[in-house]
What we know:
The complex is a heterodimer. The mean pLDDT of chain A is about 95. Chain A has no helices and eleven strands. In chain A, about 0% of the residues lie in helices and about 50% in strands. In chain A, strands 2, 4, 5, 6, 9, 10 and 11 form a seven-stranded mixed β-sheet that branches. By secondary structure, chain B is mainly beta. In chain B, strands 2, 4, 5, 6, 9, 10 and 11 form a seven-stranded mixed β-sheet that branches. The interface of A and B includes residues 44 and 90 of A.
Amino acid sequence: EIVLTQSPGTLSLSPGERATLSCRASQSVTNNYLAWFQQKPGQAPRLLIYDASSRATGIPDRFSGSGSATDFTLTISRLEPEDFAVYFCHQCAHSPITFGQGTRLEIK
Amino acid sequence: QVQLQESGPGLVKPSETLSLSCTVSGGSISRDYWSWIRQTPGKGLEWIGYIYHSGSTNYNPSLKSRVTISADTSKNQFSLNLSSVTAADTAVYYCTRGGGWLPDSWGQGTLVTVSS
Lengths: 108, 116
């Protein structure tokens, strides 16, 4: 099983700042099948990024993904008030499919 | 755009079987991958398993002995049965759709509590 470790656990920033979230895999993720989800309280996760760097439909371009093999990053270039949420990384290259434990992005 | 809606009891007794259904609209369960994923504060998001081509399945080894996922193409629904539940199975359960293994569309989720 691939274990995904996200850091930091909590990130405190202000609107307008840049956010950098990390996801490290315990082994290489084949074809970079690594995705990022955003989850707000009481809602289901929403797909932001897939295949490490491709934005899902309707996702603003301030969200970008990068990385390969075992190290991946989600960057939010300029934080908007609606971006404060929990973010999960996810690998769908190897069964069982797994998720990271999440990074909480909170308003400073 | 595909929409998914979970349904089923919100309370299940220990040792009994948890049964949930997911009704799909805007897409056919004869195609794509249809998964169940659950979320708890302690363990986070946990993939339970999926069904594809209306019959082939793949389950998380950690739950495999207790899980069955099935599909009813006449109702465009798929279902989850999880047997011998304990308090550790208390979670929000989501049904999802994916073109491959990636769950790109999610239901709103349903809370299932295991308690006597």
